[in-house]
Design a protein that fits this description.
Number of helices: 9
CATH architecture of the largest domain: Sandwich
Helix content: 40-55%
Structural class: alpha+beta
Distance between the termini: 40 Å
Length: 193
Amino acid sequence: MFTELFRHIEEKTALTEADKRGIPNFFVPKRLRKKQFLLQEGEYCRSLAFVARGLLKSYTLDGGGQEHISLFAWEGWWVSDFKSFLFDEKAILSIDALEQSEVLLIDRPNYERLLVEVPAMERYFRILYQNSLVTKDRRLIVSNTYSAREKYVQLITTYPQIAQRVPQHLLASFLGLTPETVSRIKKDIREEA
């Protein structure tokens, strides 16, 4: 399970052999069945989760019970309700598994200790947070300025695996489109090829 985490960390910063021996002590592995919740809205988010294997979705529910997907997290991604995690507030997000998944959980005390005891991890998380801000800014721009087709094409170009792993109705939710619109866009793209 830790191979994927180390690979991901070392894409951003160097780890010593001592770091690699110590880091697992801060995490708790957890397996999730398909459709099993990692977090439900209204609970307190007690851990950050690194996806070692599988696929999860983070979302909110509107008054009509409609899911609004904010994130898909597959191998190498982190997922949580970060505000709930940091400020000990009730979560506004729900997170569940779209596939059988394996995650590595780190709670707040261990997260804080990890940043102090393994300095490379502070750099790693800083880089992640910077990248996350850039990604959220880009997603907002795409959401507000791109056409439906441009949104879909940008998503599948950036994340080619997503169309094979995520059901169409969930892709539509993530893009802020209807499933029918996504179906029409896919048909148009096929006919143009």
